[in-house]
Write a structure and sequence with these properties.
Elements (H helix, E strand, L loop, with lengths): L1 H6 L4 H26 L4 E3 L2 E4 L5 E6 L10 H13 L5 E7 L7 H23 L7 E8 L7 H12 L6 E6 L5 H13 L4 E3 L20 E3 L4 H11 L8 E6 L5 H13 L8 E3 L11 H13 L5 E5 L2 H12 L8 E5 L21 E7 L18 H11 L16 H16 L12 H6 L10 E3 L2 E3 L12 E6 L7 E7 L17
Parallel strand pairs: 4-5, 4-6, 6-7, 7-8, 9-10, 9-11, 11-12, 12-13
Antiparallel strand pairs: 1-2, 2-3, 3-5, 13-16, 14-15, 16-17
Helix pairs in contact: 3-4, 4-12, 5-6, 7-8, 9-10
Amino acid sequence: MTSFIRRLPGGPLTKAVALFVTLVVLGTAAWAGYRVFGPDASCGQGVEKRGPGKGECTGVTDGSHAFAPNLKEVSARIKAENDRIKGEPYVSIAVMLPMDPTQSFEQQKTLHEVQGAYLAQYRANHESNSKKPAIRLLLANPGRNHTHWQPVAEQLGSLSENSSANLRAVIGFDVSTITTQRAIAYLTNERHIPVVGGPITADGSGNSKLHPNAYRGLARVVPTTSDQAAALSNFNKDIDPKNTLVVEDIRTGDTYVDALKLAFALRTKGSPRAPEQYRAPDEFHEEGTTANAFDQMVDTICTSSAKVIYFAGRPVQLRQFVNELGNRGCTEKKYLVITGSGASTLASDKRLDWSAFHKGVTLQYAAVAHPEAWTGPKAPRTGGSAAAYRALAGLATRKEIGAIGPVELTDSRTITFYDAGLTAITAIRMRDDGDPVIPALGRVADSWLRLHGMGKVDGASGWICLDNYGNPYNKAVSVVELAPDSPGRIRFVGLAWPTGRPTPNECTAPRSE
């Protein structure tokens, strides 16, 4: 550029042009310097900041980057385990879920989920008689509310085509929304990556007889919302619909809430009153003004014949409702509140008023797992095993796994992600003679068809017997309540089954007509 300026003839116009060109060059250099030394969109290899303001680190890491402070220890252990297996034939499994939520109880939930995935990786690499391939674990953060799922899913797609990554499955998605459905559809239908869902329970978030190919390559390890409702109904057979009432969120597009509303409508036929309704914020993790609505709603509920309230909503609004119900004017009345597995985070919500449970309010919900489900004296002989649960519980306390933070098994999140990882690993290692050690993506997805009967996954939450649509047949439901005498404790009440009885030994779904 300077040589070009030198070749220009003299004169005022020429000098002006030369000055302009020089300023452009200096400005470009200054901008480049700003890009190098100023704010940097990169948070580390494979991870970059996205979103307004300061942004959020999103992307895929092998544990080198910790997406949140409470994930530092477990991320470091994942990184160490990934480094240890270098040189062996391996495949990668990615955990995809928002890694840095804003609320403390959501942060705790995320930690438990990542811990569960790591424990599945550790077991596969250390306690499987050296079976191959080894398992490499990746953490994929699509941002809060899965806002940046598209670029992160594209990144995972590229890793599935990269022979140095060998991504063969994605596990995760801990919330049922239209956004997560789109992400799962992209991964399975567009990139052909097998997915094992975490606690995604909405019926529309999986395949079915009506929509058998909605998500080609998706498997789930937890009972659907309708199965949970059926199990709760079988467990509470003495409830008279005339004494029931539904409280429901009227937002649209929340597939978990929509599934609860449909399921509870079926269970409350004969209820004398229409559902009490409210509108949660679009960002349902936020407080909004729903507490005000519940304050007024509770007065109306007091005038009804309701004794059992079916709540179709998200955890924040459930907490607000329970708090207001505990402060009701009709203190002489007692209420049983029943809801779905989304309530599993409520025990760690510091804003929950536990005194409500001393004032005639009982909160009962369908948990996808609980430590006492298979270890108690009344545990059934089929449908799950104490040995499978104890294998996880024992692993979680061993020094060899390293520091990963306190492991909590009662909220079901650790168990669910451990079982999701176990299911993916079982399919990845399901080989016939002559098959390559590193399976093709399609072969992994096809293996879902073998995970029943003798090929079932003996999960810590119970037997995982996939039907032809990738859903667990008659999966055990742990009915639990929040214990009034011990804030933070989740009390096991009993096991329930969608069909009304434990899964038999053959562990295979019946023919659907």
